[in-house]
Amino acid sequence: MISHQTLKRLEFDKILAEISGHVHSEVTAARLMDTVPLSDGGAIASISGRIEEIRSLASQGIALRLQPFQDIRPLMELLRPVGAFLGPRELLIFIPVLEIFGDIARQFAPRNDIPLLKGLDPPLKGFADILEPLAASIDQDGGIMDSASTALREIRRAKRSLASRIRKKIEEIVRDNNIEIFLQDDFITQRSGRWVIPVRMDSKGMVKGVVHDVSSSGETAFMEPLEIIPFVNELENLSAEEKAEEIRILRQLSSWIRQDAAEISACFETLLTLDELASIARFADTHALEPPSLNGEGVLRLAGARHPLLLMLQAQGALSRVEPLDLQLGGEGTVMVITGPNAGGKTIALKTAGVLVLMALCGMPVPADGASSTFPLLDDLLVDMGDEQSIEQSLSTFSAHVSRVAAILEQAGPRSLVLLDELGAGTEPQQGAAIACGVLRELRERGAMVIATTHLSEIIGYVHATEGMVNAGMEYDAETYTPLYRLISGQPGHSHAIEIARRYGMPDRVISFAREMLGTASEEFTSLLAELHRKRGELEHGAAQLEREREQVRAIRRELEARSATIEQARQETREKAWADAREVISTARRRMNELLDEYRRERRSESIEKLRRVEAEVTEQLSPRDLAGDDQPLGEVAEGDSVRIRSLGHDGRVLQLLPKQGRARVRAGSMELEVPLSDLVAPLKQTGGTATRPSGGDWRVQAVEEGERELKLIGLRVEEALALLDPFLSQASLGSFSEVRIIHGLGSGRLRQAVREHLAHHQLVEEFRPGNAHEGRDGATVVTLRR
Predict the structure, then answer these.
(1) How many domains are there within the chain?
(2) Residue 745 contacts residue 751 (beta carbons within 8 Å)
(3) Which tens digits make up the pLDDT trace of 689-706?
(4) pLDDT for 341-353, tens place per residue?
(5) 347 is in an annotated binding site
(6) Does residue 344 have a known ligand-binding role?
(7) What is the pTM of this model?
(8) 308 and 419: one domain?
(9) Where, if anywhere, are coiled coils annotated (predicted)?
């Protein structure tokens, strides 16, 4: 249990006071000021998670529907006895509380992103059966409204009517009896609940009535005319009925609250919790705090940590900058001793570590890098900080210091964090250093984590030589002797007392004498620390330069990757365009060939054949530079019987006859014979493992069987591949004067058969087609009749 005194020494109460400025009720503020750290990791995680859920809602523009409210718990105690009831002003206090219950219950109901808030026990619920009659009965001024009941409304209506009649009656009496001359003034008023007129004291016998009061001057008597007494008595009876009805209403409302007292009280505790969490969330959003990460391994790691009180001063404009603190403790090193000059930030570092641990153990967001910082689960946080010299107890500063440290040694354990400010101070330096080293050793053996500050350089060597301890120093500008407020772990600091004294005007002879008294060893130690600072600066400069160079390399790599992606995209676009152009050339060639074939059949055979050959040469020329021919090897000379590859078909064949005058050759491909330009012949593909290497464009599995060029087998081909072979086949068949050919496509899924027949239905060379007969392959083949 962390003591209240520790919380006060670390000024945790000032942070709580700042947070309490965001609450909606004084009772929440009082409860918030009693906040204490927890040791249960699960409970801390629940608090932290709920705060983050509230902040998440706020980031979406959704605020909890809270409004100012008062403490209803004392009123609930007054209502405990049966028959007790509250006045209208007291009942008015319940209205905003019950409104908040209902508003937040409706706000939470449809949401699935706030499981921890919805898991608060008990969950808030609306008490509509109490809130509605309360809101209809009590106005904002604490009065009972006419709408509280029908009876009350009728009674008040009767009272207003009777009061109007009384006023008119008095006016008639004054007018008809000519008594205006006896009146002190011309107004009608009430005294002690009776309706009266002001009559001059010397004329009161001239007016028939009852004197109910006399003015302070004694010159005016307030008289009730006798004629209105029955009316006033009736009005008093109505007032009594009104009072009785109001009491009945208050009893009824109080009774309804009493019946649900347990639930209302429990929900009020949940409301206080929500108000408290919401105020912490608003404080966290104001200063950009991050949720804490807790660990059970006894590790304290701070990255970019700032003291919240300094952040508050910065927000107010009192500070221009708050230097972040980086610190790690636990694992291999559980004791850290911070040395450095006065006003260098040692105590601020100590308090920052302490107060952030307190905030984390309360589940509060902390001013540190949440991803890199972590906080240990603790049972105790023990602090010796500040001068608590006691005259009454005859304790000097050193005695009070030793007394507190001795108490800390008794309490410290493995789940303790000990903060010691100015360890070993207040006595002779060598003896103080010896005691300090003994304290550090005892705390390390007890397994406690320790952060201590000191000015005693004698402690540095002991810490350096002791396992589990680490020196740290507050960085100082050696040229200007000004503090930089940055903690450097692994490197001790130095007080620079003589240099600072000289800078602030200490006479040179005093400085010189002090240096002589200090001796050469201290001078060497100071020089060593200065050298360490210099080398560290060089290392930091080198590391920064290396990081800049690495960033340049990363930037160049990103640029190269972007360029590579652009080039690859350009290649892909070029490849796609090439294929599109090739398809267009083939389509145009097919169309022109079909036209020439028609002309061939109709008119001049020799001229059409020559045109057909020219078109074929053009197509071959257009296709020759494309990717399809990229891997083909040209032939130097071609002889009859040579194995060749027909580039336009993508199929190997053998030369049957050379036609040099026409620049063509007759070639057999499978069992098909056809004439092709010599330029279309290339070296056949090399055999790899007995299998010819095919081009990437696809596997041209075409086979003519049994009847030479009368059949085309397309089984196993894709639709696109099959249609690409179909047109050349029909053209060659037409040139060969075949009247009928058979196309074998198989049954399969039917897609290839359908595609072939749809293509034949619009082909210029096709007269008609039909499925094969029994001996022709039935529906697995299509028999085509060519036009003559």
Answers:
(1) 5
(2) no
(3) 434 443 333 333 333 333
(4) 766 788 899 999 9
(5) yes
(6) yes
(7) 0.63
(8) yes
(9) 529-610
